[in-house]
Amino acid sequence: MAKGVNKVFLLGNVGKDPEIRSTASGTTVASFSLATAERAKDQQGNWQDKTEWHNLVAFNRTAEIVRDYVKKGTQLFIEGRIQTRSWDDKESGQKKYRTEILVNEMSLLGGGPGRGEGSSSGGGYSRSNTTSFDQRTPASTPDYADQGITDDDIPF
Questions:
Q1: Which domain holds residue 102?
Q2: For the chain, what is the domain count?
Q3: Which of 134, 11, 14, 13 is nearest to 78 (CA)?
Q4: Most buried one in 25, 80, 134, 136, CB count within 10 A?
C-alpha cells in the first residue's frame, strides 16, 4: 500500500491563552485554539467572512515556547499533522472524538500581544525526529555586535 501524506499549514490567530500542563513523565504539553478566516461572496454578492477554529497541541520545547510567547491574539504560522483521538465518556459511556493539529513547526508572527505592532517576523521553531527544538535564523542575518545591540534589545 502507498504511503500517505498528512501535512497541515495554518496561518491564523490564537483564540485564547494556551493551556499548559505536564504529563506524569514530565513532558510539557500546550493546548490552544487557532482561528483561520476565509472570505467569499455569498449569493447576493456580499463578502462574508467564515472563521474556522482548529485545536492545536504542542509538546516539549515547542510547548515551552508557546507557554512563554503565545497569548490570545498572537498570529502564528503552523506546520503540523492532523490526528483524531477517541475516548469513552465516563458519564454517558458514549464514544467521543477530538480532531487536533499536532504542531511540528511554528513561527511567531507580528501583531500579537507583547510583540509590538509592526513586528514582521518572529522566531521559527521546528521539531526534528529527535524531538529537540531549535530557533531558526537565516544564515544572512547580520551580527550587529559592533553597533552595541544586545539580547536585551530583542522584543521577545
A1: 8-38+48-137+146-153
A2: 1
A3: 11
A4: 80
